[in-house]
């Protein structure tokens, strides 16, 4: 089971976007990304609500496995 946590403004998070891992923080309603794949992710135009953007605090490969397994699909 995946635990949910609240996103706080200004705190640096490990982020996962469609298989790519970056770091970033939430500031004034926008995600500020940095890392190797940040330029590519910025060109993909992330939805303002952070659509497909997963914040995690565990191993990257665990998140990748859960993503490929479909654990992050919204049931709504």
Descriptive notes:
The chain has 76 residues and is α+β, with helices and mostly antiparallel strands. The chain has one domain. The protein has two helices and four strands, in the order βββαβα. The protein has a four-stranded antiparallel beta sheet. The longest helix is centred in the last third of the chain and has 10 residues. The protein is globular, with a radius of gyration of 12 Å. The two termini are 17 Å apart. Keywords: Membrane, Transmembrane, Transmembrane helix.
Write the layout of secondary structure elements.
Elements lengths: L12 E5 L2 E8 L2 E5 L3 H6 L9 E4 L3 H10 L7
Antiparallel strand pairs: 1-2, 1-4, 2-3
Keywords: Membrane, Transmembrane, Transmembrane helix
Number of helices: 2
Question: How many distinct beta strands?
Answer: 4
Overall shape: it is globular
Work out the helicity level.
Answer: 10-25%
Gyration radius, to the nearest Å? 12 Å
Neighbour order of strands in the largest sheet? 3-2-1-4
Largest sheet: 4 strands, antiparallel
- The average pLDDT score comes to 82
* Main structural class: alpha+beta
The portion of residues forming beta strands comes to: 25-35%
What series of H and E elements makes up the topology? EEEHEH
How many discrete domains? 1
First-to-last CA distance: 17 Å
Residue runs with pLDDT of under 50 for 5 or more positions: none
Which descriptors would you attach to this protein?
transmembrane; globular; 76 residues; alpha+beta; transmembrane helix; membrane
Q: Quick recap of the structure?
A:
The protein is α+β, with helices and mostly antiparallel strands and 76 residues long. It is 21% helix and 29% strand.
């Amino acid at each position: 089971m995946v635990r949910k946590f609240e996103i706080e403004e200004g705190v640096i998070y490990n982020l996962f976007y469609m298989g790519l891992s970056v770091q970033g923080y939430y500031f004034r309603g926008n995600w500020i990304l940095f890392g190797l794949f940040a330029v590519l992710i910025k060109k993909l135009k992330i939805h303002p609500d952070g659509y497909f953007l997963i914040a995690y605090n565990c191993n990257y490969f665990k998140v990748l496995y859960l993503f490929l397994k479909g654990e992050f699909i919204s049931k709504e």
